[in-house]
Amino acid sequence: MEWYDPAAITTKGGALEVTLSKKDTHGLHYEGGMMASWNKFCFSGGLIETSVTLPGANNILGLWPAVWTMGNLAQVEQDMVQA
Q1: How many other C-beta atoms are found inside a 10 Å radius of the C-beta of residue 2?
Q2: Which of 4, 24, 40, 77 places its Cα 20 to 30 Å from the Cα of 47?
Q3: Which conformational region is residue 18 in: left (phi greater than 0), alpha (psi within -120 to 50 degrees), or beta?
């Protein structure tokens, strides 16, 4: 598993950038980021569009990139990308 550090999330050129690093921290071996919008982004319908670039090889141990949304009160998870 990975440690979620807010510093691993930045914006660049108008896009959200999440960086994963092989780094021993807080008893875990990887550090990445997670963006949470609890009570900040709510909608009752419409469309969420994502554009995701996953650079590098797809066979590296320890990496499991994903982009998903979680419904209100931790209900239904909607996977957009899970590699």
Answers
A1: 21
A2: 4
A3: beta
